[in-house]
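Figure-free illustration: sequence to structure, shown twice.
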Amino acid sequence: MFMANKERFLKIYANLPVNLRNEIIAVLPDVGPITWNVAYLEISNDTKLGKKILEKLSNFKII
């Protein structure tokens, strides 16, 4: 599931206009606002936070 979500996220991110990548896409209770750029860094580096972000985006039907 993680890899499928990661692939979907990366495809969406690659097609985003550069100016939209600074927009907030999620707010995590312990972390705060997450932009597309922050999400990309966390997800591409397979961090614990990246996994939480992917889960949120999947639950919100963003990816």
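We now fold a second protein in the same way, so the two outputs can be compared directly.
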Amino acid sequence: MADNGKAAAAGPARSAYYALTGALARSWGRLSPETLARMLGFVRFLEDSTSSGRRRIYLGHLERILPELSPKERESVLRGYWVVHQRAMLGLYLAGDLSGSPGRRRVEWSGRDLLEEALARRRGVVLLAPHFGDERTLHILLALSGYSVHVVSADYSGAPERVRRTRLETSMRLHHVAFPDENPRWMYRTLEAGDIVQIAPTAYGGPRGIAVSSFGVPVLASATPFRLAAATGCCLLTALNHALPGLRYRIELHPFETTGNPVSDVCALFDDLSSIGRMHPCQYNWMNLAIRHRETNTLLRLGRIPADERELESLALPEDDDPRRIGSLAALATLTRRGGTPR
């Protein structure tokens, strides 16, 4: 989620939450990581039920996406999602200790041969890592496995220093971290050197984004991975990092073949991601979908596409969160064709 005035106002509470999580993480000798994740996940689930109404928002989306499940089963999915979310949160504190043989034993691989084959071509690799499982630890695990990896990350500007340090410190120590406002030329240079760039295709697409359906919700997706592939001939792989019990991970890589048409490629990718989310509903980040849904409602109401996601979030109204309000994909596409501004 972008940082804005609302986030800044919640800064002290957020910092306290990170401090508490860090203190609990240091108590692993007395309490297992999985016990902590389940305990904190239950707390977050209860918080959603009593404060901001996020539980209603998430369950509203899940009712539409997983209609075959009973209300009780969808609540179970949401509880499971929060446990996975907290495993990823605790993973931020574990990340610095993942080196060495005990760390390697925490990671299972599926499709690693695809990565090795792609790197052997020396044209670079773009990893399409959606908000799924623990995508933040993915690039850390890759760096610790000996890969030259680069990642695009939020800069957490405006966030409390404790939050920014926790989110970025280990990554910046292990590999190159770039921020969205940097000139994208570094990506072309990185791929030309035959290295790896990790991008979140489920992040905000901005004015140059492509309108696409994500679980039936129109969203703006970035066209950057497909522009990179067209310009450099790099390989694209979908990359999932399952956050498993006991703070273990399963990295799963799948080939993604481009057609040269960014619109059809984005649609095919999001069709794949929707299938993956339905197959692993506790691993998919429903908070991200809710944010993208709200942003689209805000965009359509404004009739323009701000370049800065923080500006977009600051302009959101409570009704933009309503899961029953699904905007028009055609209207969003029309807005992108206008260059993100009204005529």
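Summary for the second example: Residues 71-94 form the longest helix (24 residues).
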